[in-house]
Amino acid sequence: MDGLIAFDAPVFKSVQPKRVTHVNSIQRQEYARFEGAGATAEVVLVQARHFFLENVSLNFPQTTENVIGLWNAFKGKDIKMAKAVWYHPELAGFWYRPFSAASGPSCIAFTSEWDIHAADEKLRPDMALLGYYCAPKGQALGPVEAEKVIDTIGVGGVNKSFRGNSLELAMAPDPNQQEPLARLVRGASASGGGAGTDYFPFNMAEVYTIHGGCSGTDC
Predict the structure, then answer these.
(1) pLDDT digits (tens, 9 = 90+) for 130-141
(2) How many beta carbons lie within 10 A of that of residue 212, not counting itself?
(3) Start-to-end Cα distance in the chain
(4) What whole-number distance in Å separates Cα of residue 65 and Cα of residue 137?
(5) Number of Cβ atoms within 10 Å of the Cβ of 60
(6) 126, 117 in Cβ contact below 8 A?
(7) DSSP codes of every residue in the chain
């Protein structure tokens, strides 16, 4: 399936990620799972969709600490976390937090948001990204290594070229497949050994009131 999330870490060279895309009238969400050379990453991209309305932004409350708890891979595990760190690569500013599960690999959780709506009184974003990366077992993720990983994360049409076959299909896939595919992500822990998230698709897009009382279809 075509998608927009790119992860160009060397361990994922030539890897075809597993993707699920969910679209409704005001948001597009994409889930991607990357596995290669002993490393794993799961990423969700959320975009406000302006198909009918311009005054749509994302309510994105996630912190790096919260993000760790979203994934089935870490459910029921004793997680050790370090402090969150701010880093600003080419795409946008990222918060990332090093963490590890008991006897597990070295990982980072990350969040990013960009394209702030100036007309939204809460100054919320148009696009947001959340996810984690776990290095091959035995490899440490110090600050230098973690930031090199984040440098390889991208979005087609933003800081990476689109690499699929159909941008139109990537942006708005067959609606009849969306809910069955979303259930696969939510049920991945039962069928795929600790993958996916029970929270996909996230409900983040909101219609906001523009200064002066304009709202929804009245705009």
Answers:
(1) 999 999 999 999
(2) 7
(3) 35
(4) 22
(5) 18
(6) yes
(7) ---SEEE--GGGTT---EEEEEE-SSEEEEEEEEEETTEEEEEEEEEE--SS-S-EEE-----HHHHHTTBGGGTT--EEE---EEE--SS--EEEEEEEETT--EEEEEEEEEEE-TTSTT--EEEEEEEEEEPPTT----HHHHHHHHHTEEEBTTTB---SS-HHHHHS--HHHHHHHHHHHHTHHHHHSS-SBTTPSP--EEE-PBTTTB-GGG-
Cα gap 150→89, rounded to integer Å: 7
* Tokens of residue 139, six digits: 């490899």
Distances (CA, A) of 47 to 25, 125, 206, 209, 210: 11, 9, 11, 19, 19
* Residue located via tokens 């370090």: 82
pTM of the complete model: 0.87
159's CB contacts (< 8 A; 6+ apart) are 90, 91
Count the neighbouring beta carbons within 10 Å of the beta carbon of residue 104. 16
The radius of gyration of the chain's CA atoms, rounded to the nearest angstrom, is 17
Residue 210 is predicted with a pLDDT of 81
Q: Please, are residues 204 and 46 in contact by the beta-carbon 8 Å criterion?
A: yes
